[in-house]
Amino acid sequence: MSDTKTRALTVISAGLTQPSSSRLLADRLAAAAVDALTERGIDADVEVVELREHAHALVDNLLTGFPSGALRSVTERVAASDGLIAVTPIFNASYSGLFKSFFDVLEPGTLDGVPVLLGATGGTARHSLALEHAIRPMFAYLRAAAVPTAVYAASEDWAGSDDQALGRRIARAGRELVAAMAERQNTGPVDPFANSVPFEELLERQAP
Fold first, then answer.
1. Are 162 and 130 in contact (CB under 8 A)?
2. Of 185, 194, 153, 151, whose CA–CA distance to 169 is shortest?
3. Where are the transmembrane segments (predicted)?
4. How far apart are alpha carbons 57 and 73 in whole angstroms?
5. Whole-number Å distance between alpha carbons of 157 and 10
6. Is the Cα torsion angle 46, 50, 89, 66 positive or negative in sign?
7. Is 161 a domain residue?
């Protein structure tokens, strides 16, 4: 976890082309989060990860059980992050295989309690529900703390009044992510002994 003046934010983009709409959305979400951090007087340490650059290493990791080279650095970065932005293209009404493979290779517990902003892109608005029926449940299983506002961008969202509406959703999601990151930093890890019963009280309870 970062110091009190800096937050480490990792951005995962599963776009398959270059450039890709997933990377475009990821960059805008990251910019919104950085703006929200700046408003709180906090610096941002941002790293963007293009999963397409690690596709072969992900397959090797799935086969061997061990990350290698640059992929190991990425998984370590995710484990040390204060917040995460995760964006995938939607294929067949769900996340991409590349996106799923990355989260499959993370060590159990890596995302426990980590604030995550979910994003997705697709050719039509009909796929937007994939965020709620596929992507959010996966992060719930991983015990991540996904923020309430997830952002979906269809092809028509990138122009005119639709882009303004998209911009408002992005700004709201960025603020929610930063609020969750700040709350996690303030509360810190849970002490399992914080609310323990004093020994003297335990003895009193056992007395006849």
1. no
2. 151
3. none
4. 12
5. 24
6. negative
7. yes
Nearest to 179 by CA among 38, 78, 37: 37
Helix H, strand E, coil C: the string for 32-69 is HHHHHHHHCCCEEEEEEEEHHHHHHHHHHHHHHCCCCH
What is residue 145's three-state secondary structure?
strand
Collapsing DSSP states into helix, strand and coil, what is residue 147? coil
Stretch 31-54: mean pLDDT, rounded?
97
Count of domains for the chain: 1
Q: Does residue 148 have a cis peptide bond before it, meaning omega lies within 30 degrees of 0?
A: no
pLDDT digit string, tens, across residues 135-168? 999 999 999 999 999 999 998 888 777 788 999 9
Give the range among 54-63, 113-122, 156-165 with minimum mean pLDDT. 156-165
In a domain, 87, yes or no: yes
- Per the structure, the complete domain to which residue 28 belongs is given by 6-206
